[in-house]
């Protein structure tokens, strides 16, 4: 089909189903162009190599379900390392899901809070009961974890009477939601050294995800953009003020190192 025929067909389809317009404005290439227009001072993303955090450490990722929606092992490792290396006391996350991320950091923090839409809210969204049932699966029994229920844009964080050393934003990944979560939670940092981690700021460990990055850069004041970094080998972006080593993010890198991953099955009965 030639371009003119395609355009006419597309216009007819959009007239019949206006929701199709969303597929254009939510498209990554559209978001990328929007990002470049709004943030011309960001000519490249700065990326902190994963080994900057890992150094000589050997870390164990557990629990790790290896199921749909799991973060990467390196994402969970990054959270553990940041908590350990920065003596994180109070940790807050948006997006509990199976409770894997909070369960991974729980041994390295004093107190963790994790917020998710309640089962009723998930049910009203028409989500499957098996999916809803899996929420908090790993984190429910953990003593230093408090489960919070509600919508991140409405939840009264003041009611917790605490500020946070590390905030992990992993709820709704649409640009507007990331923007609103970030702008709200920026004020709940304990101090200027407090860390923010955003999940899914890349669609794979090398490819920036503009849908999420647009929300992040819109929410963080322009004079603080220098503190936003992608993290190598992960899907995360971080807000870090301690001037870490970084390189220019690029795709199709030749690996200069590799990781060794040991897989061990653990029984849930014991
Ligand atoms: C990607 S999952 C979180 C994964 C989890 N952090 C982990 O790594 O193990 C995202 C979760 O956020 C929840 N969610 C989505 N939008 C939300 C919102 N606005 N407020 C609270 N929770 C939300 C969803 O129900 C889902 O369980």
Report on the architecture of this protein.
- The longest helix has 14 residues, at about 5-15.
- This protein has 10 helices and 11 strands.
- It is of the alpha/beta class.
- The strands form 2 sheets. It has a 9-stranded mixed sheet with strand order 4-3-2-5-6-10-9-1-11, sandwiched between helices. Strands 7-8 form a two-stranded antiparallel ribbon.
- The structure holds S-adenosylmethionine.
- S-adenosylmethionine (SAM) binds near residues 94 and 122.
CATH architecture descriptor of the largest domain:
3-Layer(aba) Sandwich
Strand order of the largest sheet: 4-3-2-5-6-10-9-1-11
Give me the count of strands: 11
Strand portion, in percent?
15-25%
Number of domains: 2
The shape is globular
What ligands does this structure carry? S-adenosylmethionine
Task: Provide the fold topology.
Elements: H1 3-16, H2 21-25, H3 28-38, E1 46-48, H4 50-54, H5 73-85, E2 90-94, H6 100-105, E3 111-116, H7 119-124, H8 129-133, E4 145-149, E5 166-169, H9 175-186, E6 195-198, E7 202-204, E8 207-208, H10 210-219, E9 228-231, E10 237-239, E11 247-248
Parallel strand pairs: 1-9, 2-3, 2-5, 3-4, 5-6
Antiparallel strand pairs: 1-11, 6-10, 7-8, 9-10
The structure holds S-adenosylmethionine.
Task: Write a brief caption for the model.
Helix content is 32%, strand content 15%. It is built from ten helices and eleven strands.
Keywords:
alpha/beta; 15% strand; binds S-adenosylmethionine; 10 helices; Rossmann fold; 2 domains; 270 residues
């Amino acid at each position: 089909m030639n371009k003119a025929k395609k355009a006419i067909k597309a216009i007819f389809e959009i007239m019949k189903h206006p929701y199709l317009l969303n597929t254009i404005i939510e498209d990554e290439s559209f978001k990328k162009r929007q990002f470049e227009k709004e943030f011309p001072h960001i000519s490249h993303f700065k990326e902190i190599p994963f080994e900057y955090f890992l150094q000589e450490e050997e870390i164990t990722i557990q629990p790790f379900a290896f199921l749909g929606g799991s973060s990467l092992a390196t994402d969970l490792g990054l959270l553990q390392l940041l908590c350990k290396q920065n003596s994180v006391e109070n940790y807050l996350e948006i997006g509990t899901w199976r409770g894997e991320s909070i369960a991974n950091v729980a041994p390295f923090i004093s107190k963790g809070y994790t917020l998710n839409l309640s089962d009723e809210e998930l049910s009203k969204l028409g989500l499957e009961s098996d999916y809803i049932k899996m929420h908090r699966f790993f984190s429910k029994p953990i003593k230093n974890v408090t489960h919070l229920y509600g919508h991140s844009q409405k939840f009264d964080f003041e009611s917790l009477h605490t500020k946070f050393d590390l905030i992990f934003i992993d709820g709704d990944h649409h640009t507007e939601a990331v923007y609103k979560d970030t702008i709200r939670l920026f004020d709940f940092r304990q101090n200027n050294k407090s860390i923010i981690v955003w999940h899914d700021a890349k669609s794979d460990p090398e490819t920036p995800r503009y849908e999420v990055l647009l929300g992040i850069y819109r929410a963080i004041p322009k004079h603080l953009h220098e503190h936003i970094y992608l993290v190598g080998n992960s899907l995360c972006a971080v807000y870090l003020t301690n001037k870490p080593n970084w390189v220019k993010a690029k795709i199709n890198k030749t690996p200069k190192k590799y990781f060794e991953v040991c897989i061990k099955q653990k029984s849930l009965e014991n």
